[in-house]
Automatic annotation (TrEMBL):
It comes from Dyella flagellata. It comes from the Bacteria. This is DUF3301 domain-containing protein. Residues 112-135 are annotated as: Disordered. InterPro entries: DUF3301. Residues 125-135 have a biased composition (Basic and acidic residues). It holds the Pfam family DUF3301.
Length: 135
């Protein structure tokens, strides 16, 4: 019985360490994405960090997946602090909210560069850092 308990404890510790590693890599990717998007929109990413602020189940590409929300702070002119949020599924950015722009990936995009009627929302697809997203 002692060997089984030791094995079970070891498996639980490995699962915790694996989960921490996966979430740490995802957070690093979110930091890169937030930094790049802030540069793209002329904002300053404050504290150079993001924090996971939520999880939700979402239907994405026909499957139910976990989508992580990260929150961070940006500055428009260096004298303010504004909230920003981004949502990611694995390493794919699915939504971005900044003080000056709101982007999202709809489940069924109609056109890559069309605006949604009545707002400033621009749908986008997974990007390559060498390619600009049209506004």
């Amino acid at each position: 019985m002692g060997d089984f308990a030791t094995l079970l404890l070891l498996l639980v510790l490995l699962a915790i360490a694996g989960t921490w590693l996966v979430l740490s890599r995802a957070r690093d990717r979110a930091i890169q994405e937030a930094r790049w998007r802030c540069q793209q929109h002329g904002l300053q990413l404050l504290d150079e960090t993001v924090g996971m602020s939520g999880l939700r189940v979402r239907r994405f590409r026909g499957k139910r997946v976990l989508e992580r929300r990260y929150s961070f702070e940006v500055s428009i002119d260096g004298n303010d602090r504004e909230a920003g949020h981004l949502w990611m599924i694995d390493s794919v950015l699915t939504a971005l909210i900044l003080p000056t722009v709101e982007l999202y990936t709809p489940e069924y995009p109609t056109h890559e560069t069309s605006t949604v009627e009545g707002g400033n929302v621009l749908p986008f697809r997974r990007h390559d850092h060498d390619r600009d997203i049209r506004h």
